[in-house]
């Protein structure tokens, strides 16, 4: 039986509320006005032949295969471009139509190689299907010899481009334009010489193509096809699951052959991605079978010893014994845990449960500490909830968009594609970022304003924007009067109206021209629906929480909350960083963001868990490391995080880990933190487990097991075994039972269950009796806390300042092809695009130091130094340098300091004073680090490679 993918209705749905009724082949159908005849027919099960049409793209009308007859109308219109009308009578199959379609299809086949038996798309080829649908049995005009001399382009690591099979339907070009927004493809030439061309006839790999896969998915033939499909064959089954990369939370059909994954196809019904994907989610899943993946538990007595492989029973018993011994010798607060933002909600919930109920303390934290903890503090203070206010669809109703401290084309590319779609429709963009990120100016998109502020001055810029809004009478008085605390607003308004907060007064601090700030403020306040999207460039500062409050102030002052197209929207970094926070991974909060001092909340957990919950907050990650150095904290259970590479001031992290008696790392690979571990518990990938992730829009989505875990256990099973071994009973048979428990103790998840998720596809919390299908847009009629809270946002300069010794400011971020610390993406072909971290430096600063593009340079700060190669570019301003942190050889965080947000301890990654100079090789610290890493990866009985 031939493989069948998702049903394709030919054209996108119409959005009209008006309905029309027509007949198609004598059958009545009622559809929204504007629906194409092709889609109307498909909705009643009638398939009209097509090649250039697909429901992810606007109708094109070029293939002439979808012709129909309409009573009272001359000719044979294309059904994809003809809208349904009231009373219309349509026929899709007549003798004349059959004759016309055969003629059209014969011309297509005449310019196409007839190698179907050996073609990789055999059984999954629309050209083949449509030839059968029109009854074509012979071709009079040749066998495609015109295209046979065109060379295949195999430069892209994930897919091939074979122009000899191209039918010039333009679907790939349109997908690149309409869906992805890169405009990397075009049709070159005319007539029989026409063909698809990447950029200026470049190979795909070196072209502007970002390898999102939209063109591959749109191609109806084998012109663009995954290498894995050609190698393995057509899939025969699928499971719908959720991507394990960024916080967009794309849904995919994991298409399998047996237990072998053939391809990941973005699911059209996925409400976060709407059938789109990026290079990571679509193609970079090969790490699951990488040769460096660890599949057996390992232990060692000392971090200087080689690892010894053991069975699960021995590893769990040894770990539990060490934890019990340490607590007996040093007290119950001497150990703790770190949950993973890459693991599922259920797995994260169990780790914090193990710490609170099994260890008997609140020493649990998560990677959100070093990324979005200020979001939790700021939004909960202002609105009463610790999460973004909108769904991603909301951006399509925005008129003016502020993008601050985020680079979505690299960090959240699927959302960036939606954003670019809206900008091409006419929305205006304001970018507040030290770098000229891609979206400032890209094909058919240009920001109305780019405010290239000095790193560390976010608060000053936003308060200056607020100054303009208040002093120029741009406040939404009705919204403030009805929805916010008036006394707090009046105090805030008087504060921001002070002349010292004017754009002119702050220009010397921020380096942003005053008139640019004023123009941006007026546009946001008067430009219709105003939405704010922000990222780590907001939160990873000493005033991260203050900046989040400043953003909330702007949204409330302009009335941009509580409807589609507006809101405050944090772009979360990792796939489940929102979920890890929801599940109670912070030391001061239980699931649902209830403080551990809340007697009623603790009583609820005590009744269900059979254990008392400490009323005192536990240690944060920096405090755990500091206490370890002081000799007071002795053991740490780390689930799926690499704090040695991801956390700031690497020397301090290394010292803290080295001071502990038992460090347990649960992960896929021997990561950098495992250099200091005593126990390694091999984890399972998202392909090997059941559970849920919660994305940046609060959307809870199923993760479904598509293959058995290569390590033998899902991550939740490992935590459960460890809990049982230390004497705390856990007895779950399936993650659905864990979700039932989460729903029982977490008000925002009260209505969530696997059955409901399966029925609805996904749910955005809060989900309860009042909102049984979830809440796409928050704060519709009022804020969770009651009245919205305005807070003064005084600018306090960071202690990290440039000076004669360290004259440049370093800021850090991500790149499209790599992800976070690179543990997954570095073990895929994505490294072909980015095989090392580079230091971006302005030509003026480079010239002053005698640095040429590609030179090795040393970056030194007050905390440490490292070397990497320079990239001379004007994307950064003079006085600012930038690098990514994906490669452990760089160890970018060896130069970042221990400065952190005043409220949450979120590290100040984005502002580090440095000096840059030419170098002739690695630093002493890098050489010592490399030697320790090499020694730490020794395994008894396994030869080094």
Automatic annotation (TrEMBL):
Recorded superkingdom: Bacteria
Domain 2Fe-2S ferredoxin-type: 18-96
CC per GO annotation: membrane; oxidoreductase complex
Pfam families listed in its UniProt record: Fer2_4 (PF13510), Fer4_7 (PF12838), Molybdop_Fe4S4 (PF04879), Molybdopterin (PF00384), Molydop_binding (PF01568), NADH-G_4Fe-4S_3 (PF10588)
InterPro entries tied to this protein: 2Fe-2S_ferredoxin-like_sf, 2Fe-2S_ferredoxin-type, 4Fe4S_Fe-S-bd, 4Fe4S_Fe_S_CS, Asp_de-COase-like_dom_sf, Formate_Dh-H_N, Formate_DH_asu, MoPterin_dinucl-bd_dom
Molecular function GO terms recorded: 2 iron, 2 sulfur cluster binding; 4 iron, 4 sulfur cluster binding; formate dehydrogenase (NAD+) activity; metal ion binding; molybdopterin cofactor binding; NADH dehydrogenase activity
A GO BP entry: formate metabolic process
Domain 4Fe-4S Mo/W bis-MGD-type: 236-292
Region (Disordered): 918-945
Domain 4Fe-4S ferredoxin-type: 157-188, 201-229
Keyword set includes Translocase: no
Domain 4Fe-4S His(Cys)3-ligated-type: 96-135
Keyword DNA repair annotated: no
Keywords, in A-Z order: 2Fe-2S, 4Fe-4S, Iron, Iron-sulfur, Metal-binding, Oxidoreductase, Repeat
PANTHER family: FORMATE DEHYDROGENASE H, RESPIRATORY NITRATE REDUCTASE
Family under the similarity heading: Belongs to the complex I 75 kDa subunit family.
Protein name: Formate dehydrogenase subunit alpha
Annotated organism of origin: Sphingomonas gilva
